[in-house]
Design brief:
alpha/beta; OB fold (Dihydrolipoamide Acetyltransferase, E2P); Thrombin, subunit H; nine-stranded mixed beta sheet; 45 strands; 27% helix; globular; Coronavir_polyprotein_1ab; P-loop_NTPase; DNA2/NAM7-like_C; ATP binding; hydrolase
Length: 1187
């Protein structure tokens, strides 16, 4: 069709025009009527609403078009103009194609004002039983939809007699899809551009990629456009991901590349003007119910997300990156106004009723009035300020159903902890029950009294399901292609954080608020614990965990980055890379999202994805310099050093907060509590069941020997605790470096040996970190010379691959079962094998199925025959875990608390052993919060609990600004409270083996009341002696006399950094075999130092170093202002950790004038002899080049 040529649709034409997606075919007369009359009158005339199993077409917004925006005949402005008559000519005939038909079902229909297009172009009538779950305009707080399989969410109640297919159809999803159906749909979608659509007039050009087409869009007109191949089409692959259960995420996954490209093409099309475009003609009714889409209404609409609401309307950005695809900057932001038609509800939108994160299916776009006749924007400056430069206005759209959680507990994040109160107009930030992001509420909209905000409240909250910035489901590029795509989309790929929005805040009931505020008294003193009390404990614990996850949610960076490897350190066990990530134009990279410990994935050009962990990150004007540790050295290309710089793709490992929650606490279903449920009764005692101090245990202690090791009297008491009757829980309180792990392992070994290698039950040893578990394994190896204790460490193969090889052992489950089965098969296999031993056959089948053993090496013909049985359809009689326990018969199970709980909850065999666990040893208990103690006690309800730790050291980690009251729910500090109140019997270990005498005397006097005793005798400090420094004392102080710089919430100090780096390098030359730990108070300073030192030196924050020890410790204080009243640097727990890490020497870097303002720090510095206090510049070792 030439520009300006009239199109006439003749009434006598027998050709039929198909409606959207082939749902319904219309005559030419009906098509013309749809373009000129209201949808309601048309459908009422046909009797379409009277139970025929089909909804009417969507309400329409009629408009007209003007001149082309770019002066190009192929493009046309679509600004609204009405009253201009046109003639539609179809004398040439419109080729048609039958639709895919309707799905017939047995669900009764009823006249309802709702239209949902199915996934296959099917339109069905809504069951009246479901209608009550759809909100109306003034009752949106009733909206709730199911989430991804978590037991605290709400569900739409469908009729109970429906099949899955019928449920999906009622939800607008069509029939339940198998993977083959999904792939077939993809292929169909991708090939649609090569077909004749039932709504299109096609004129195929010489190119197979581009062609001229026209489409009838109800309420919009006939659009002529040129089809193009999407620039990302070459990056598409097979969709091998299972569609999620959540209807909204399922809808997002179904947005294909062909749909996106059709939307892009039509937005550039030329629209024919139509008659009757005013609101009265449309007969829109603002009193109509607000209905929500569960599927796309046609094949050219895409999903956008609301990112802000302003006076002009709601600004939207596409969910899929392919919509802009690095070239269509005009589509990055569109404006939904009060004139935008809600085609599902038959009324116009109220943009001020939308919230950030709401999802909108955009059908049509028109240029805003002020851009009429203007060319499309092409500058990337356009994406910087959408309010000023948004080109498009949304013409027709539908809203996707939102999630609203009602009546949830919430606590405002206490702004006064940052030194200021809420100001008028501030957004109040809340941590909310069952919400894994920080929620916001505009202060100006708050209707409750200010004082209510300082306590727990109830809220209704809208929770976004998706964040923009995703790729289509079929996006499967190669390495080189991904690098190309990352470069293309970086201009518009923001890190979106669309937070939940609070709708209403109201007071909680007094009894609920009192329960939340009193974490110590949830059980009645002396009363029998009830099931309801344990369920309440589980719910309160879950509340603490979820809010903690919400505080950390901002750290995830969803983007992929093209980066360069600029340095490589190849060590024996692992490899460290220095990576430079350039700042994308859209949004600079935040170092707060790339902190130490962040799990990342690196893609090399050899198509290998390597798992890595961030060691440090430092931001600059050009980007982010990151040091990452690759655990599996073989994943790094062999010649990478010679080819530097090497281009890579780096991204965060994908996170799912709800999955993190399930891994952390599971379902938290409390088991029954009886008189033998020792662990459950301990939980009751800890939470108010016992208020009086526990009676001390009478323990007879006798010395014993394990190999060449003889425990002390204090250490021996740990073993004799196991022989003492009538106890269900105990605490072993110990100072730093007292040999607590040795005492525990000695007790376990001696207990097994006394029982002759067998016992009535299992023992479980756990801790909050892999480091504490590895310490128990090393102690067992060192002390159990006879190998009396058989133990297994429960860790999955995937998690084991992520761990540093220093934490690996031959008793890790993925290694142990293979070695045990192989030995068992080889020891029992013979040509004359008698009988058909079940266990032997199972072992052979498991090994061969996983290619850990070759059936050709089996001597027994019967065993070889067993390995030929189908492993999946005819599995072995015993699982791997069951067979391992039957053959190996372990005495002890080790693992982190999360790992052990997950294994015993998910493995059916281990679940049968939960009540056979006799002792539960919890190491580093000061780091164990309620969120770990409650699930592990629910897992082993009958076990006697032994908590081992130091109540004077750091409690469990908490995010900065995390409210104290929520921290009390999640963490406590539980262990410190137990020790202080003596809720359980306490044993003490007081002899310190780690530190020099002078250091022990220092921290013993400051923190332990002088009750700790040094094992080492005073001696010359060899580290200082090797550097020519005074060596009569193990502590040295360097007065940096320097200022610091604030970096975010952290601090850096360049002078301190240079002095520390110089000292470490000099010391390492003289003492190459000594271990060095550079420990700092501030993470930013630690990250900068880590960039300057080789990998063999540990550089960490004090919070991350608890439980570790080093020959030499450098302590970086960094702070220049006065230490007085700085709660962070003067924290007693943190300072205790700092002083108790060194085995030989400690060097403190500080601004002495500032440090001496704090009484605690003044005592530390006064303990150091004057001869070991140096000013910057006193000697070459403590001088900088500029001095």
């Amino acid at each position: 069709m030439e520009d300006g040529e009239e199109v006439v649709m003749m009434d006598s034409d027998e050709e039929r025009v198909a409606e959207m997606d082939g749902e319904y075919e219309m005559t030419a007369e009906e098509a013309k009527k749809m373009l000129t009359e209201s949808w309601a009158s048309t459908m009422e005339e046909k009797g379409e609403f009277e139970g025929e199993g089909r909804s009417g077409p969507h309400p329409v917004r009629l408009a007209a078009c003007g001149s082309p925006p770019c002066g190009n005949g192929s493009l046309s402005s679509c600004s609204p103009k009405v009253g201009r008559e046109i003639v539609i000519d179809t004398s040439a005939g419109l080729p048609t194609k039958r639709g895919r038909g309707s799905v017939k079902d047995n669900i009764p229909g009823k006249k309802v004002k709702r239209c949902v297009g199915g996934a296959d172009g099917v339109s069905i009538t809504t069951n009246p039983e479901l209608l009550e779950h759809y909100s109306v305009a003034d009752q949106e707080s009733l909206d709730e939809i199911p989430e991804l399989g978590f037991d605290v969410t709400e569900h739409i109640e469908l009729p109970s007699n429906l099949t899955r297919q019928q449920e999906d159809e009622m939800m607008g999803l069509g029939a339940a899809e198998s993977m083959e159906q999904v792939e077939e749909e993809m292929e169909t979608d991708e090939n649609k551009q090569q077909e004749v659509s039932p709504m299109e007039t096609v004129s195929v050009s010489q190119s197979s990629v581009s062609r001229n087409e026209s489409k009838i869009i109800p309420g919009f007109g006939i659009v002529e456009y040129v089809t193009h191949e999407h620039p990302f089409a070459k990056y598409q692959g097979t969709f091998d991901e299972e569609l999620p259960d959540c209807t909204i995420e399922r809808l997002e996954r179904k947005e294909s590349l062909s749909r996106v490209q059709r939307f892009r093409d039509i937005s550039l099309g030329r629209r024919v003007e139509i008659v009757g475009g005013d609101v009265e003609t449309l007969k829109l009714d603002q009193s109509n119910e607000t209905l929500y889409a569960f599927d796309y209404p046609n094949d050219y609409s895409v999903m956008y997300s609301v990112v802000k609401v302003r006076s002009a309307g709601a600004y939207l950005t596409p969910v899929k990156l392919e919509v802009v695809a690095g070239e269509r900057v005009d589509l990055h932001s569109v404006l939904l106004t009060k004139d935008t038609v809600d085609t599902l509800s038959g009324k116009t939108f109220n943009p001020f009723s939308l919230y950030r994160g709401d999802l909108i299916i955009v059908e049509t776009l028109t240029p805003r009035k002020k851009y009429t006749g203007e060319p499309l924007p092409t500058s990337w400056d356009y994406v910087g300020d959408p309010e000023e430069q948004t080109y498009w206005e949304v013409g027709n759209a539908q809203q996707v159903r939102r999630i609203i959680k009602k009546g949830r507990w919430a606590l405002a994040i206490d702004e006064e902890r940052k030194g200021r109160a809420f100001r008028t107009g501030d957004d109040v930030k809340f941590l909310v029950q069952d919400v894994t992001q920080v929620a916001t509420f505009p202060r100006k909209s708050l209707s409750v009294k200010r004082e209510i905000l300082w306590d727990y409240v109830a809220v209704d909250v809208v929770v976004p399901v998706l964040q923009p910035g995703r790729f289509c489901r079929t996006f499967k590029p190669t390495y080189s292609q991904e690098a190309e795509v990352v470069a293309k989309v970086q201009q518009h790929n923001n890190v979106w954080c669309l937070q939940p929005t609070i709708l209403q805040v109201y007071e909680l009931k007094e009894e609920v608020r009192a329960t939340l505020n009193n974490a110590k008294s949830w059980f009645m003193e002396g009363g029998k614990p009830t099931k309801e009390q344990f369920e309440q404990l589980a719910e309160l614990t879950r509340f603490g965990v979820i809010t903690s996850l919400a505080m950390s949610s901002f750290k995830f960076d969803p983007r992929s980055y093209k980066a360069e490897v600029t340095g490589v350190e190849e060590l024996t066990r692992y490899c460290i890379l220095t990576v430079l990530i350039g700042n994308p134009p859209s949004q600079n990279i935040s170092s707060a999202r790339w902190q130490k410990g962040t799990a990342v994935v690196i893609s090399f050009r050899n198509h290998i994805d390597a798992s890595a962990t961030v060691l440090s990150s430092v931001a600059s004007e050009v980007g982010l310099s990151v040091r990452v540790k690759i655990v599996r050295k073989g994943e790094v290309p062999q010649n990478i050093t010679a080819e530097l710089p090497v281009t890579i793709i780096i991204r965060h490992r994908k996170q799912d907060q709800m999955s993190n929650l399930r891994r952390a606490v599971g379902k938290l279903t409390p088991p029954p509590c009886t008189e033998k449920s020792h662990a459950m009764l301990v939980l009751a005692d800890v939470h108010g069941g016992r208020m009086e101090p526990a009676e001390p245990l009478t323990i007879e202690s006798f010395s014993f020997t394990i190999g060449s090791f003889t425990p002390t009297k204090e250490q021996s008491e740990v073993f004799y605790l196991l022989r003492t009757p009538d106890w269900r829980g105990a605490i072993i309180e110990c100072g730093p470096g007292v040999g607590k792990t040795t005492a525990v392992t000695a007790a376990i070994i001696h207990n097994v040996e006394c029982r002759g290698g067998s016992g009535s039950g299992l023992a479980v040893g756990t801790g909050s970190t892999n480091a504490s578990v590895s310490a128990m394994i090393r102690s067992l190896r060192a002390r159990d010379i006879r190998q009396s204790v058989r133990f297994v460490r429960l860790v999955t193969a995937s998690n084991l691959m992520k761990l540093d090889s220093m934490h690996h052992s031959q008793n890790d489950f993925p290694h142990l079962w293979v070695s045990v089965f192989r030995k068992y098969v080889m020891d029992n296999d013979s040509v004359r094998l008698e009988g058909q031993p079940e266990m032997l056959g199972c072992a052979a089948r498991h090994l061969c199925a996983r290619q850990e053993f070759s059936a050709r090496n089996l001597k027994s013909a019967w065993l070889r025959e067993q390995t030929t049985r189908q492993y999946r359809t005819d599995p072995p009689e015993q699982s791997v875990m069951q067979l391992l326990f039957n053959i190996f018969d372990p005495h002890l199970i080790l693992g982190t608390s999360d790992s052990i709980r997950a294994f015993f909850s998910s493995n059916s065999y281990l679940a049968t052993l939960r009540e056979t666990v006799e002792y539960l040893w919890i190491d580093e208990s000061s780091q164990l919060g309620r969120s770990q103690l409650v699930p592990i006690c629910y897992t082993f309800p009958t076990a006697r609990v032994v908590m081992v730790g130091d109540s004077k050291q750091l409690p469990p980690y908490r995010e900065q600004s995390y409210p104290d009251r929520l921290n009390a729910l999640k963490n406590g500090p539980l262990f410190a409270n137990l020790v202080a109140e003596k809720v359980l019997p306490i044993l003490k270990l007081s002899r310190v083996y780690r530190c020099p005498t002078q250091i022990v005397e220092l921290f013993s006097g400051l923190f332990y009341g002088g009750k700790l005793v040094a094992h080492k005798q005073p001696q010359t400090c060899q580290p200082f002696q090797s550097l020519g420094l005074p060596s009569g004392h193990p502590v040295l102080v360097v007065d940096t006399r320097s200022g610091d710089t604030v970096e975010g919430t952290s601090r850096v100090n360049d002078v301190e950094l240079e002095l520390a780096v110089k000292f470490v390098k000099e010391f390492q030359i003289k003492n190459p075999r000594k271990s060095i730990g550079v420990l700092g108070f501030y993470a930013a300073q630690v990250a900068r130092v880590a960039q300057r030192l080789p990998s063999g030196i540990t550089v960490a924050t004090l919070d991350g170093s608890q439980g570790n020890e080093y020959d030499l410790v450098l302590l970086l204080t960094t702070l220049a202002p006065a230490f007085l009243n700085n709660k962070f640097i003067s924290d007693r727990y943190r300072l205790n950790v700092a002083l108790s890490r060194p085995k030989e020497a400690l060097v403190i870097f500080a601004n002495l004038k500032s440090a001496n303002t704090d009484p605690l720090w003044a005592k530390v510095l006064d303990s150091v002899p004057k001869s070991l206090v140096f000013q910057r510049g006193d000697s070459p070792l403590f001088s900088l080049p500029s001095q």
